[in-house]
Structure formats: C-alpha cells, structure tokens
Specification:
Blueprint (H helix, E strand, L loop, with lengths): L9 E4 L8 E2 L16 H11 L6 E3 L12 H11 L4 E6 L6 H9 L4 E5 L5 H7 E2 L3 H15 L7 E8 L7 H8 L5 E6 L15 H4 L7 E4 L4 E3 L12 E2 L5 H5 L2 H11 L7 H7 L4
Parallel strand pairs: 1-3, 1-9, 3-4, 4-5, 5-7, 7-8
Antiparallel strand pairs: 2-6, 9-10, 10-11
C-alpha cells in the first residue's frame, strides 16, 4: 500500500450534537452513546495537532448544528489563529443564524457557509426539517446574506437541498429562487442515514464512488476517528484522538487499508462500507 499523504487535508470535527431540528434523514436523535459536546480540551488538542500539517479545510461540524456549540466563537478563533491558511466551512440549518451568530461567523473569517434548506414551500420544508419554522429560517438566511453584501471580505455561500421523493418536484423552483442569491446551489440525493428518504442513486455506493477517504477524516465528540460522514454510529472506529495523535491514526495500517480498499472498489472489509452499499445505514 502506498500512503499518498501523511496527514488529512480536510478535517471535520463534531464539536456538538445539539440541534433544534429532527430532520427525517439525519441520525442526530439516534446518537445517545457519546457526549453531546466535545470537550474544549480535546478540541484544542485536535487543532493544535493540525498546526503546520498543510490542512486546507476545517469543518467544525458532523452530526449537530455547529451554531449550537457552547464554544462556537472560541472554536472559530482557535482555528483561524492556529491554522490561518485553512478554510473554515460552516454547515447550518439556519435556525440559529441570528444577528449574533452571523456576526461571529463574519468576525472570525469563515470562508464558506452552507445552508441546508430542503424545500421551497412551508409544507414540504417543515415535513423534512421537523421542529423548524420555514419563515424563520428563510428570514435568518436572507438577513445573513444581506449583512454579507456589506462585508469587506469574500465569504462563499452554498445552499443545499437534500433530495427525497417528497421534495424532488420542488427542485426547479428551488434552483430559480437561490441562483443569484448564493454562489452555489447544490441538490444531492438523500443517503437515508436517519432511516428515511434514501433515493435509488444511493442504493449502491459503488456506482456513486467514494471520493473523500483519501484526503478527509472525521472526529466524533468522544474523540473517535471515522472515515466517513455516514459513520454516525462509529461502525468502523480507526482510533481515538484522546489516546493517540491524529497523524498516527491517519497513518495506521487499518486506515491505510481502508483507503486502499475504497480506491480499488473493495467494500467488504469494513463495517461502515458494508452498511453503505447494503442500504442499511
């Protein structure tokens, strides 16, 4: 096996599992066996280990709403101060994107903000993003975009619709609404991690391809390192940053084997890969 990079270029850290929503395709409310928040000490350890390692992206998010983190501003300040060349990406459902949190993002030089909005009508949106109010989320996002137009630095914006059979008909109108308001409009097929909405495009991951295991890694709130965003339950834990360095985990024989397997289209050797292709996430 040939190790292409000695350290991941993209890091996703689950700073919190807090979230006001109960989305049909999200496993968030199923996660009960690890801390609701990553400890500040562990978060700092991860960021410090990334110093000088060529990290290009840092995402303080996996299975929770990052704006709900109790140390949101401290985390962003820590990342940008320690890793000035890393682009910080925020993924948000917009429910907590008020003036205060919006200013925190802009004050800390976040490079890209992703808004998850899964419909164009109140009925469809609220059926997918249970617990959220469509009008409030839209007002929050539009307000942030208005503030962004006055901001001196460029912040990329992206709106994402997770497509299910129940919102697919709204995709054309969704694109018309957001094109021109944000930089990128994404429509992605639902992978059904929360148990609902999985589309045929995701029924066989071998057809979709698996493009990020060679450069990206994920750290859950308890420090567990997993290779994929779909591994919300820790089906295949490759190490724990509370016990070992991220670099040593990334270069471990097991992690290198997983990357080699995926690159060769082999999905039988690791639990998370088997679940992904068998439609049993």
């Amino acid at each position: 096996m040939q190790q292409k990079k000695s350290f991941p270029r993209s890091i996703l850290v689950e700073t919190t599992l807090r979230c006001p929503a109960d989305c049909i395709f999200c496993p968030n409310k199923k996660i009960t066996d690890r801390p609701g928040d990553m400890s500040w000490e562990l978060f700092r350890k991860i960021v410090d280990e990334c110093r000088g390692k060529g990290v290009e992206e840092f995402h303080p998010f996996i299975n929770g709403e990052p704006l709900a983190s109790p140390y949101l501003e401290d985390a962003l300040t820590c990342i940008t101060g320690t890793l000035p060349d890393a682009a910080v990406h925020i993924y948000t459902n917009g429910s907590l994107l008020d003036e205060r949190t919006g200013e925190i993002l802009l004050r800390n030089n976040v490079r890209e903000v992703h808004f998850s909005i899964d419909g164009i009508s109140k009925r469809v949106y609220e059926a997918h993003r249970r617990g959220l109010v469509y009008e409030q989320v839209m007002a929050n996002v539009m307000g942030f975009l208005a503030r962004l137009r006055k901001h001196p630095s460029k912040v990329a914006t992206r709106v994402v619709l997770t497509m299910t059979s129940d919102n697919e008909a709204e995709v054309p109108a969704f694109r018309r609404l957001w094109e021109g308001l944000v930089d990128v409009v994404d429509v992605i097929p639902c992978d059904g991690r929360g148990g609902v909405g999985r589309l045929p495009a995701y029924m066989d991951a071998r057809m979709m391809g698996c493009f990020h295991v060679s450069y990206r890694t994920y750290v859950l709130t308890d420090g567990s390192v997993v290779a994929c965003c779909k591994d919300w339950a820790g089906y295949t834990v490759l190490g724990n940053v509370a016990e070992d360095s991220l670099e040593s985990i990334w270069n471990s024989p097991e992690y290198m084997q997983l990357r080699a397997d995926v690159e060769q289209g082999v999905f039988a050797n690791f639990e998370v890969c088997r679940r992904c292709i068998s439609d049993s996430l």
